[in-house]
Specification:
Layout (H helix, E strand, L loop, with lengths): L1 E7 L2 E7 L4 H20 L6 H31 L6 H22 L1
Antiparallel strand pairs: 1-2
């Protein structure tokens, strides 16, 4: 198991991940840091825990919106022609992956 140290809001966190997933974990941490920076840019003076909760809620909201969009697109594609069946399957796989990611963030 690999160990990665990420920096979020000025704090270093050493986290474990599967070998080969180090860059993915670092990229996810960078996205969390971006959300925290956007919250701070709004002038919000909050404690560490509140900043992390707000960042998590922003990301959960984005995932929710994406999931709803994917579901709507899947429904629209299912009403389309047989030639669109391959696209429907691909979109369903993307929706499933988005749900897996969302479930991982909830943990």
């Amino acid at each position: 198991m690999a160990q990665v140290t990420v920096r979020i809001n000025g704090y270093a966190y050493t986290l474990g991940c599967e070998d080969g997933q180090e860059s993915h974990l670092a990229a996810m941490a960078a996205r969390v840091e971006e959300r925290i920076d956007s919250i701070k840019a709004l002038g919000s003076q909050s404690g560490e825990a509140k900043l992390l909760v707000l960042a998590a809620l922003l990301m959960a909201d984005e995932l929710h919106d994406q999931s709803r969009l994917l579901e709507r697109l899947k429904a629209e594609l299912q009403q389309g022609s047989p030639a669109e069946a391959a696209n429907t399957r691909r979109l369903a796989m993307l929706a499933d992956r988005a749900e897996e990611i969302a479930a991982g963030l909830e943990q």
